[in-house]
Amino acid sequence: MVSAASGAAPPLIALAGVRKRYGGGSSGQPETGVLHGIDLEIRAGEFVAIVGQSGSGKSTLMNLLGGLDRPSAGHYRFEGRDVASLSPDALARLRREAFGFVFQGYHLIASETARENVELPALYAGLPPPARAQRAQALLARLGLADRVGHRPHQLSGGQQQRVAIARALMNGGRVLLADEPTGALDSASGAEVMALLHQLADEGHTIVLITHDRGVAEQARRVVEIRDGRIVADGPGPGAASSASTSAGAAAAGGTQAAAAPMSPGSPRPARPWHADLGEAARAAWRGMGRNRLRTGLTLLGIVIGVASVIVMLAVGEGARQRVVQQMGTLGTTIMYLGGSAPAEGGPPGRITEEDLSAIAGLPDVAHVMPVIGDPIPVRRGRLERQVYVFAAEWFMPEVHQWPLAQGRFYTEAEDRALTPLVVLGHRAKAHFFPGDPDPRGRQLLIGDSPFEVIGTLAERGAESGAQSYDDMVFIPYRAGRARVYRVQTQPDYTVVAAASPQQVAAAEAAIRRLLLARHGRADFEISNAAARLQAEAQTRRSMTMMLGLIAAVSLVVGGIGVMNVMLMTVRERLREIGIRMAVGARQRDVQRQFLTEAVLLTLAGGVAGVLAGGITGAVLVASGVPVVFSVRAMAGAFACALAAGLVFGWAPARSASRLDPVVALAGD
Ligand code: ADP
Ligand code: MG
Fold first, then answer.
1. CA–CA gap between residue 321 and residue 388 (Å, rounded)
2. Domain boundaries in the chain?
3. Is the dihedral of CA 331, 335, 338, 344 positive or negative?
4. According to the model, what pLDDT value does residue 247 have?
5. Alpha carbon distance 457, 427 (integer Å)
6. Distance 582 CA to ligand 1 centre (A)
7. Hey, whose CA ends up nearest to atom 14 of ligand 1?
8. What number does CATH give the domain 4-263?
9. Which end of the chain has a smaller Cβ tally under 10 Å, C or N?
């Protein structure tokens, strides 16, 4: 307990030779001296009025007293501690724990309710939400605003707003109330009410510094300090001092009880709270911030939505195209080449690939299979049913070469091929054409050309997505039986399928075949079409395409992020005063930074969620219209993570600029 008379303890506030200059130096502004050597001591429990004409430096002095600003020269000690040496965060703590500001313009946050405005200092002091709400409610009730707690500032009269501001100043205890022209904007009745409130608080032991240009108001205080042109010209007891001497004596005692009643003992450190506790609060404030300008928020979001959606869709389309190629590789084989005779470039008749050529090729180390094929559309009949069908005559290992399993029955054997046995295996759709409604046509006969063939099996469906649908319409007969019974005049294969031993050996096999045939024929009268290499190259191209598309989409995400940054910078500029208010009630730089960063991240996260949805819908439409699309959870998570990262990256600079604002400049800003 500090008694004004004891003099033993250091004064609460002690200014010695304090000067304040604006501009000058490197700022480029002309230098203006505002305070020219202020010496002032204020003891705990005093009710001091600082009076002076407009422009005399009162507000500047108040900002210094409240730790919103620092003196250019001289010393300011608060409870014996030099304030000049305090870091910005320590200054914020001093404001939070020792001071309560009441401004002429109330300085309430417009988007928050009366209760939320009052709670603000306790939020930054780390008081848990229920205790915060309870205390704010009690303070508002005490100031006669019990039925206005949910109102926003614009729904309150000036007098009511000023009482909300006083409640806010008391929220963390309000040991020292700094009131800058608190009645300046009020009608006389409301002004008198506010003054009565200040008297009452002074009686309860709060130290009050009242700043006013109005001598009538000033003279209600117990001590009046007069300031003129930045210098103190008078300091003495006010006319009201004598009458309130008795209450003044009781003030110190009341101060003790008041301090006990305040939940925040001024010296208490900010309690350690989990980071997510503050995050929830920041998210709520961020949500409000976004709601303030819905159209702008929506348009900014659109950038992120389009970015995220296009990343997802582009990657899905690219992946779909790639998988289709891979499927084709499965169908046609990653090891397969086609060999046929052709006219050489230098002229002359097309070459013939002889049986001897084929056995020589089969002997090459990189070659696994050599499969001559004869195939042509010819009439196939069953009873009165006749169709033109591609009849594929190849050797017994055709299913292995084309990696094509059977659905039913079996394929013909090498022995049956050599014995010219008339057997036929049906493609999936050929079976449906010739034996509709017959689940098992094995043992039935088909007339191919004019020879009867017995059905012994059905091949599995290749399907539309493999790009080899027409294979399902074919029928398959043994090579030698086909040559002998169907394609009688044709002794040459139409083409030969050569399978390399492995996908890695395709190129070597092709080169070896070229060398061999050149040596045997003496001229390049043949053609090798390397489907495997073509497909492999195509798959590679598709992969690069996917990467490209993804990159382009990612660029749009970056553009979206820049949009977020732009909006956040505007938001900071628009909410200067709010930032100033938060700082005045004790927000640390990192509190402000976290709030705006949360806002940016929330913005991009919302965009990310909408983008994933939009991407999903677009993908569904594409699937419905037959475009192969393969969604990957990885791409979605990646796009989402990119949106989050964009929020952090592009929100960081605006949030930092907000947190580095000078509280006085921010408060004055609009
Ligand atoms: P009062 O509150 O007594 O009316 P102020 O403390 O607001 O006076 O201002 C005192 C003087 O300081 C004024 O002349 C004003 O122009 C000047 N001043 C205040 N703030 C600044 C600033 N940021 N830059 C330059 N001059 C300022
Ligand atoms: Mg002023």
1. 33
2. 4-263, 288-326+538-667, 336-532
3. positive
4. 42
5. 9
6. 22
7. 55
8. 3.40.50.300
9. C
The two tokens of residue 563 are 């949009």
Q: Which residue's alpha carbon is at the smallest distance from atom 10 of ligand 1?
A: 57
Quick one: which ligand is closest to 181's CA?
A: 2
pLDDT of residue 492: 81
- The whole-angstrom separation of Cα 479 and Cα 658 is 82
> What are the φ and ψ backbone dihedral angles of 30, each rounded to 5 degrees?
-65, 145
Tell me the pLDDT tens digit for each residue of 51-65: 999 999 999 999 999
Q: How far is the CA of 68 from the centre of ligand 2 (A)?
A: 14
Residue with the smallest CA separation from ligand 1 atom 25 is 22
Q: What is the pLDDT of residue 213?
A: 93
Pocket test for ligand 1, best of 18, 20, 32, 661 (most atoms within 8 A of CB): 32
Counting from 1 in the atom list of ligand 1, the atom nearest the Cα of 181 is 2
Nearest atom in ligand 1 to 211's CA: 2
Q: Please tell me whether the overall predicted TM-score, pTM, comes out greater than 0.85 for this model.
A: no
Which residues of the chain have a pLDDT value below 50? Answer: 1-7, 243-269, 465-467
At residue 40, the pLDDT reads 95
Expressed in angstroms and rounded, the spacing between residue 55 Cα and the centre of ligand 1 is 6
Predicted local distance difference test score (pLDDT) of residue 258: 39
Instruction: Spell 264-292 as b/e; 16+ CB within 10 A means b.
Output: bebeeebeeeeeeebeebbbebbeebbee
58 close to ligand 1 (CB < 6 Angstrom): yes
Segment 585-638, tens digit of pLDDT: 999 998 899 888 988 888 888 889 999 999 989 988 988 888 888 888 888 888
Helix (H) or strand (E) holding 381: strand 367-382
Nearest-CA residue for atom 16 of ligand 1: 55
Gap from CA of 61 to ligand 1 centroid (Å): 10
Tokens at 497, concatenated: 């399928």
Give CA 110 to chain center in angstroms. 28
In this structure, which residue's CA is closest to atom 5 in ligand 1? 57
- Tokens representing residue 122 in the block: 């306790």
Tell me the best of 22, 68, 231, 232 to mutate to test the pocket of ligand 1, counting ligand atoms within 8 Å of each CB and taking the most.
Answer: 22
| Amino acid 463: pLDDT | 66
User: Which one of the ligands is nearest to 30 CA?
Assistant: 1
Q: What is the whole-number distance in angstroms between the Cα of residue 664 and the centre of ligand 1?
A: 11
Q: How far apart are CA 14 and CA 81, in angstroms?
A: 10
Q: Are strands 475-478 and 385-394 parallel, antiparallel or unpaired?
A: parallel
Residue 628 in tokens: 């192969």
SS (H, E, C) 221-283: CCEEEEEECCEEEEEEECCCCCCCHHHHHHHHHHHHHHHHHCCCCCCCCCCCCCHHHHHHHHH
Q: What is the dihedral of CA 546, 552, 553, 558, to 10 degrees?
A: 140
Which residues touch 578 (CB under 8 Å, ≥6 apart)? 109, 110
Closest CA to 244 of 188, 199, 290, 208: 199
